[in-house]
UniProtKB/TrEMBL annotation, chain A:
Protein's cellular compartments: Cell membrane
Family: Belongs to the binding-protein-dependent transport system permease family. LivHM subfamily.
Spans through the membrane: 6-30, 94-113, 140-158, 190-213, 225-249, 261-282
Organism: Aliibacillus thermotolerans
Entries under CDD domains matching the protein: TM_PBP1_LivH_like
Pfam families assigned to the protein according to its UniProt record, in alphabetical order: BPD_transp_2
Main location: membrane
Name listed for the protein in its UniProt record: Branched-chain amino acid ABC transporter permease
PANTHER family: ABC TRANSPORTER PERMEASE PROTEIN, BRANCHED-CHAIN AMINO ACID TRANSPORT SYSTEM PERMEASE PROTEIN LIVH
UniProtKB/TrEMBL annotation, chain B:
Membrane topology note: Multi-pass membrane protein
Protein name: Branched-chain amino acid ABC transporter permease
Entries under InterPro entries matching the protein: ABC_transp_permease, LivM-like
Source organism, top-level taxon: Bacteria
Coiled-coil parts of chain: none
Transmembrane segments: 12-33, 39-58, 88-106, 113-132, 163-182, 214-234, 246-274, 295-313
Compartment list: Cell membrane
Keyword Nuclease: no
Protein keywords: Cell membrane, Membrane, Transmembrane, Transmembrane helix
Source organism (scientific name): Aliibacillus thermotolerans
Broad class of where this protein is predominantly found: membrane
């Protein structure tokens, strides 16, 4: 029983990170129909840039803010540099395009920070708290809280503000949105910037637990993509649900079966779920060409 | 009779290509370049299958390295663990890759687009994990070493020029098979699936059957390539069959242009050339480190997609066609005047 609790805690922590990454995928996908394979690199950059700011002696929360701004700028530049010029390319080319960007960012990161892991201190003290038979590090609680905060924030932003309405309009019908005076190009730019912010926050939250290195973005990106697909591409609640499911599967797989097979367990389960629901758990029933 | 819209195989093009392949070892004598050329042949076989899958059936696979790995491991187990002939290994490489693809294709027939991409990605990661973890059969992360060479009519195919020709013979057979499929009824059916699955099934094309068949065929191609790879490299380990490898295969097809068989070939040659060039430069200039290689590689991928979204081959061939038609219209104008 204590094992079960411990695995659940680990699963929910890592699952929350996957959920944030998946929300980044969904944010970009719903407006631009692009799957941004560089989403995981935003997470990596969040941790790495934080490390650099702390290294030059800046205050913790100032560094936190500056890191978000820096990654946000990178997201904005990326959209301007590679997505704007390729309007109308077919989705498979766009996947390769963002994979190319991811390889590029990863290469630059390994040139700047080397290949080792970096350490970033936790938000608050790192004394584990025991709750019943399980122990939780305060950072894990922060991760879950941040995930919930982001969900709330996105809900308010998308559902309760004018820019959110414009965002939704673009995702439903870009042509009609354009006729109403909304610029899909600006919304595309906005979605990348927003999604970079989400990635940076995920990176900042997980850095004290995971010790980021130049290549952590790859697997985080894949898990986030899996979560977005599992939940049903384009569905924000689905992304959160998918992230938590993958986190838990992985944690139980590592705990009860073997840590080497944790990815195999998680991905086998994803395959089985997709067999039963070919458009994800909360996806629309009729997906046509599956987003392509 | 020549029907409009029916494409035919350009045998002159095939002939020129065969000639280039034949002459290459006489022109380029450095052994490491020949080695890379041999690997290129192996990758061409994988990307041909993937190109058919993507460009003609409109399916995407992010797990092609899994079939490639299964092909390599099947023959390694048969020849090294059980001491059988590599030719029996080939049968197993093809059979196991095809069987897995059939199961995948059959069960995943309801998936499409990004959901299919996800399924193939998951499949690739599962196969890689199994290769690492099933230590009693696959020997874990260190993999096999001492895989025997291939014998044909009592003649051992050694590394270097013999293996180069051996691999490219398979690659050229693969190209011819693909060209024949593409220019047949099946090819037209596949293209119709690529454009609209609903419309083609309404016209009586059995879309599910064709999709599964082409998936199996692409896996067989990858399996054969894996077989060639295992017997060429003497040792294999799971690190050659990761997600990165799948992505490189995908990049080869997209760079070259998935709407053409030659696109896959061109893309493969090009990516290998980029890798070799950056690597060789890295040996000469110390500031070009292995990290820098990735930066350049990523940059080239991005630039090609931005400037040639349809891939290199279609862009180049339409540019050439335009030039030719311009010239012929110019001469006609001169005659008229």
């Amino acid at each position: 029983m204590s094992d079960f609790l411990q695995f659940s805690v680990t699963g929910i922590t890592i699952g929350s990170i996957y959920a944030i990454v998946a929300l980044g995928f969904v944010t970009i996908y719903s407006v631009t129909k692009v799957i941004n394979m560089a989403q995981g690199e935003f997470v990596m950059l969040g941790g790495m840039i934080m490390f650099t700011f702390l290294g030059i002696g800046l205050n913790y929360w100032l560094s936190f803010l500056l890191t978000i701004l820096a990654v946000m700028a990178i997201g904005w530049v990326m959209e301007k540099a590679i997505i704007q010029p390729t309007k109308g390319a077919d989705p498979i080319s766009l996947i390769i395009l963002t994979i190319g960007a991811a390889i590029f960012i990863r290469g630059v990161a390994s040139m700047i920070w080397g290949k080792g892991q970096v350490r970033v201190p936790a938000f608050t003290s790192n004394e584990p708290i025991s709750i019943g038979p399980a122990t939780i590090t305060p950072q894990s609680i922060w991760v879950v809280l941040i995930m919930l905060f982001i969900v709330l924030l996105l809900y308010i932003l998308i559902d309760r503000t004018m820019i959110g309405k414009a965002f939704q309009a673009c995702s439903v019908n870009p042509m009609a949105a354009r006729l109403m005076g909304i610029s899909p190009a600006r919304m595309s730019s906005f979605s990348f910037t927003l999604s970079a912010v989400l990635g940076a926050i995920a990176g900042l939250a997980i850095a004290p637990i995971m010790f980021p290195a130049y290549d952590t973005g790859l697997m985080l990106g894949i898990k986030g993509f899996s979560a977005a697909i599992l939940g049903g591409l384009g569905s924000a609640p689905g992304a959160v649900l998918g992230g938590l499911i993958i986190g838990l599967l992985e944690s139980f797989g590592a705990g009860y079966i073997s840590s080497g097979l944790k990815d195999a367990v998680a991905f086998t389960a994803i395959l089985v779920i997709l067999l039963i629901r070919p458009s994800g758990i909360l996806g629309e029933r009729n997906v046509g060409k599956g987003g392509l | 009779m020549k029907l409009k819209g029916v494409q035919q195989t350009n045998w002159i093009g095939v002939g020129i290509f065969v000639l280039i392949v034949l002459i290459f070892p006489f022109v380029v004598t450095q052994s490491f370049l020949l080695n890379h050329a041999t690997f290129t042949g192996i990758y061409v076989i994988v990307s041909l299958g993937l190109g058919l899958l993507m460009g003609y059936a409109g399916q995407i696979s992010l797990g092609q390295a899994a079939f490639y790995g299964v092909g390599a491991y099947a023959t390694a187990i048969m020849t090294t663990t059980y001491g059988l002939s590599p030719w029996i290994g080939l049968i197993f490489s093809i059979a196991i890759a095809a069987l897995l693809a059939y199961i995948m294709g059959y069960t995943m027939a309801r998936l499409s687009g990004y959901y299919l991409a996800m399924a193939t990605l998951a499949f690739g990661i599962i196969v890689h994990s199994v290769l690492v973890e099933w230590r009693s059969v696959t020997l874990g992360a260190s993999g096999f070493y001492g895989i025997p060479s291939i014998n044909i009519f009592g003649y051992t195919i050694t590394q270097g020029i013999p293996y180069y020709y051996f691999v490219w013979a398979f690659a050229i057979i693969g190209i011819i098979i693909c060209l024949n499929i593409v220019h047949s009824r099946v090819g037209r059916a596949l293209r119709s699936i690529h454009d609209s699955e609903i419309a083609s099934s309404a016209m009586g094309v059995e879309t599910g059957k064709y999709k599964t068949q082409i998936f199996v065929l692409s896996a067989i191609f990858a399996g054969v390539a894996g077989w060639l790879f295992a017997h060429m490299s003497y040792s294999i380990s799971p690190s050659s069959f990761t997600l990165d490898a799948s992505i490189i295969f995908l990049a080869m097809v997209v760079l070259g242009g998935s709407s053409s068989v030659w696109g896959a070939v061109l893309g493969t040659v090009l990516i290998t050339m980029i890798q070799v060039t950056v690597h060789t430069l890295g040996e000469q200039f110390t500031f070009i480190t292995s990290e820098f290689e990735h930066v350049v590689y990523g940059l080239i991928l991005v630039l090609v997609i931005i400037f040639m979204p349809r891939g290199l081959f279609p862009t180049i061939s339409s540019w050439l066609n335009n030039k030719m038609s311009q010239r012929s219209s110019e001469t006609q104008e001169k005659k008229a005047s």
